[in-house]
TrEMBL record:
GO-annotated molecular function: GTP binding; GTPase activity; microtubule binding
Source species, domain of life: Eukaryota
Domain Dynamin GTPase per the UniProt entry, residue ranges: 1-150
GO biological process: endocytosis; intracellular distribution of mitochondria; mitochondrial fission; peroxisome fission
Protein name, per record: Dynamin GTPase domain-containing protein
GO cellular component term, pick one: mitochondrion
Organism this protein belongs to: Letharia columbiana
Region span, Disordered: 1-23
InterPro entries the record matches: Dynamin, Dynamin_GTPase, Dynamin_N, P-loop_NTPase
Upper lineage: Eukaryota, Fungi, Dikarya, Ascomycota, Pezizomycotina
Length: 163
């Protein structure tokens, strides 16, 4: 299946996604087998010329097929500025991992939170809201203003969250 190149429109009847999988595998006689698969994010609304209803079904099916495996660790990646209640991946992960032994929440973009929203995100990290057995970690990319901070500066910035 051909996927349109960046900047090109989706041809009628064509998909933005492929059922093909790119895996990174590590194995050997003295190593445990490890595969890393990055699946696309779930979406609920087709966009004309970009995403189709068939794309939505394909992505959802691919995500569900990977997270159901008992050997799979699900990293549920969720943007911090988005309402946790709208994140379908948590429901799918709970279906696939009812004991919560293989699901870790990864919160991204905490720097984009509106003032006052920090406490809601920290409720997730502290485990007082939408608790996951493995918990949540937070990932923040450095912005332009953070070009080359020292590790001490980075830790100080993070401590502001843990008042």
């Amino acid at each position: 299946m051909s996927i349109p190149a960046l900047g090109h429109s989706l041809a009628p009847g064509r998909s933005s996604f492929s059922d093909d999988t790119m895996k990174i595998e590590l194995s050997g006689p003295s190593r445990q087998h490890l595969s890393v698969v990055d699946v696309p994010g779930l979406f609920r609304t087709p966009t004309q010329g970009v995403l189709t209803k068939e794309d939505m079904i394909l992505v959802r099916h691919r995500v569900k097929s990977y997270i159901k495996g008992s050997w799979t660790i699900t990293l549920a990646v969720i943007p911090a500025p988005v309402d946790i209640a709208t994140q379908e991946i948590l429901s799918l992960a709970e279906e696939a991992d009812p004991l919560g032994q293989r699901t870790l929440g990864v919160l991204t973009k905490p720097d984009l939170l509106d003032k006052g929203g920090e406490e809601l995100v920290m409720d997730l990290v502290r485990g007082t809201k939408n608790k996951l057995n493995l918990g949540y970690c937070m990932v923040r990319y450095r912005g332009q203003q953070d070009k080359a901070p020292s590790s001490t500066d980075r830790h100080q910035t993070f401590k502001v969250w843990w008042r």
